[in-house]
Amino acid sequence: MDIKEIAKFQKGFDEKHGWNWSKSSQEEKIKHLQYGTIALAGEVGEFANTVKKILREFNFSKKIPKKEYEKLKEEVIDIFIYTIKLADQILEVDVEKEYFKKMKMNEKRFEKFKKK
Prior knowledge:
By secondary structure, the protein is mostly helical.
């Protein structure tokens, strides 16, 4: 499944639950942009809090706690979901196209850091 298929699947899921932001007026889209940004920040916060717990445990026991490490996977997917929703349903971004465009820019930007 590629990014476009994932975005389509997400849109279908959202449609079933009354959360499809793509059919909104401009005023509603601004509200959804605000909500989505806050939700995304919340998920990043949960990810960061889990990293903090992993670091605390690792610094004490020199072991990575499996439960918290598994939670990171869940949180990164929550971040991905909100990112896809914002990109596809609000900003109408072709994620694949824009990803490679951005990576081309990064290639130039970070040229001096390339390993030889």
